[in-house]
Specification:
15 strands; 288 residues; 5-stranded antiparallel sheet; 28% strand
């Protein structure tokens, strides 16, 4: 029986990621879990805002968003991230997120979501900076980007490259604490945004990053008939780190799974989809 993946999420209060499936079922992803699936047919657009794609458009395998261009536009038409709404009455929080040495970003998230946004991004450490109305949070975010020289996004490739060689918890916290000190001392904060005290929240244990081996390959895309199978070692943001039957450690961005029809495969079947070799010599002609 084939299933269509709705993506990975981090439900509030559990700190255990789950794979969602069309129809509402979820699969908890705990360390040591054996995973395996085979892609079938073509990757089809997942639609926008709960509505199916009217064209059933084919989506390219390497896209991290399983939507066609039109559905992607519709999905962002009412989006805080895209700055297309300004009247959201909810309270928002501004945060600093640390992904590795020298890799810190500033962002905002709805207070009701708690740390879910940080878990979704794969933030190893974060601290809240302030809380208040949406536009005040957005203006302060822009101030901090400019004054501190920190971006509002960091490429996932950069995040993955350092996960197996992170400094200790004290060093991680110290870097983000210094930026927090500078941030709350800046003039120009929106008056309606309340500053928040520094408190480092470390996700290394939640993600399973302590002692994580370096990856040997990263899945580039799924293909018809291609298999991804292995034992879950770590999960950070949308990424699953899988120990394969060939004893490699392969990273799968679960955003590549959306839009595919997937059927179960044995964990011993390994990985037969195109990979990016990040260990040297582990990939032959783009296949593991």
């Amino acid at each position: 029986m084939a299933w269509r993946c709705a993506g990975l999420s981090w439900p509030r209060g559990t700190r255990i990621p789950v794979l969602g499936w069309e129809g509402g079922r979820v699969s908890p992803l705990t360390a040591g879990k054996e995973l395996g699936f085979r892609a079938e047919g073509e990757r089809r657009c997942v639609g926008a805002r709960g509505n199916p794609c009217p064209l059933g458009a084919v989506v390219v395998g390497r896209a991290t968003q399983g939507r066609c261009a039109e559905c992607a536009r519709l999905d962002r038409a009412h989006s805080v991230a895209a700055d297309t709404i300004a009247d959201d009455p909810r309270t928002y929080r501004v945060y600093l997120a640390w992904f590795g040495p020298g890799m810190v970003k500033v962002g905002i998230t709805a207070e009701t979501r708690g740390p879910a946004r940080l878990l979704e991004q794969g933030a190893v450490v974060f601290s809240w900076l302030g809380r208040g109305p949406l536009m005040a949070a957005r203006r302060t975010e822009e101030l901090l980007r400019s004054a501190l020289g920190v971006p509002d996004r960091i490429p996932y490739a950069d995040k993955r490259a350092v996960r197996a060689a992170l400094p200790g918890a004290a060093e991680r916290a110290a870097e983000i604490e210094e930026l927090h000190r500078r941030a709350v001392g800046l003039a120009g904060w929106a008056e309606s945004l309340e500053r928040m005290d520094f408190e480092a929240v470390d996700h290394a244990e939640v993600f399973g990053l302590d002692g994580l081996p370096a990856a040997t390959g990263i899945v580039r895309e799924l293909v018809d008939g291609g298999v991804v199978a292995g034992r879950l070692v770590a999960a950070a943001g949308p990424d699953l780190h899988l120990r394969t039957a060939e004893d490699g450690l392969v990273v799968l961005d679960t955003r590549l799974m959306t839009g595919w029809s997937l059927i179960g495969a044995g964990s011993g079947e390994g990985v037969t989809v195109p990979l990016l070799d990040v260990a040297g010599g582990a990939v032959q002609d783009g296949l593991f």
